[in-house]
């Protein structure tokens, strides 16, 4: 594998990981909001 291919693989992996992290953060935020509404 060339350095370019490795760089592209790393970039795609980072972007996918970032998307998953953002999705989890968003899901957690909506879940806590629902819990707070039900609790109060």
Task: Please provide a written account of the structure.
It contains one helix and no strands. It has 40 residues and is mostly helical. It is rod-shaped. The termini are far apart.
Outline the secondary-structure elements.
Elements: H1 3-39
Rounded mean pLDDT is 91
Envelope shape? rod-shaped
Number of helices: 1
Name the helix and strand elements from N-terminus to C-terminus, one letter apiece: H
Q: What separation lies between the terminal Cα atoms?
A: 57 Å
Protein structure class? mainly alpha
How many DSSP E strands? Answer: 0
What Rg do the Cα atoms give? 17 Å
Estimated helix fraction: over 70%
Indicate the low-confidence ranges by residue numbers. Answer: none
Strand content: under 5%
Q: What profile does the largest beta sheet have?
A: none
Please tag this protein with its features.
rod-shaped, 40 residues, mainly alpha
Concise synopsis of the structure shown:
The chain has 40 residues and is an all-alpha fold. It contains 1 helix and no strands.
């Amino acid at each position: 594998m060339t350095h370019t291919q490795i760089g592209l693989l790393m970039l795609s992996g980072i972007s996918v990981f970032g998307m998953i992290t953002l999705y989890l953060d968003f899901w957690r935020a909506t879940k806590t909001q629902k819990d707070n509404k039900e609790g109060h």
